Amino acid sequence: MKRLKKLMLMSVLWLATTMTATGAEHGNNLKLTLVYDSPYGFDETLESLRNTIHAHNFRVFPDRYLEEGLVDEFSVNTRQVSVRFCNFSDLYAAIQIEPQVGVVLPCTITVIEGEDGKVQLLTGNVQAMLTLFDNPELTAAFQDLEQKYQAIIDEVTL
């Protein structure tokens, strides 16, 4: 089981490196991860994020600690939480356009509280993920998804 987790982590790191290299090759300097500051505390930001995701017609799955499975359960930083969510009709539409897109959908927003108490939200950059595919139809479909993500972030951080 530990080998599988390490293999999965290595795969994600490889994908991140590949995506960054692909973006650089195409002359765009897209960041793989977008970071937003929250003016609120950790608990308030986390609760607001869950409620806002629900309000935008996404299904929210159980939260995961960012380090869960990477360190022993007593060492996990409980102030780093990934909120996972999905809109199944959007997912189905995207998979109809490009079956492989399900592997890279950024259906996670992570809330992190730093040692200084500063709270940030991190999410995958939809535009950076689109560089993996040369599909104008998928790009058009992802514009709507990107707008939904931005609306969620804006509501939580304003």
TrEMBL record:
InterPro entries: DUF302, TT1751-like_sf
Top-level taxon of the source organism: Bacteria
Domain called DUF302: residue spans: 83-122
SUPFAM superfamilies: TT1751-like
CDD domains, alphabetized: DUF302
Protein name: DUF302 domain-containing protein
Provenance organism: Candidatus Thiothrix putei
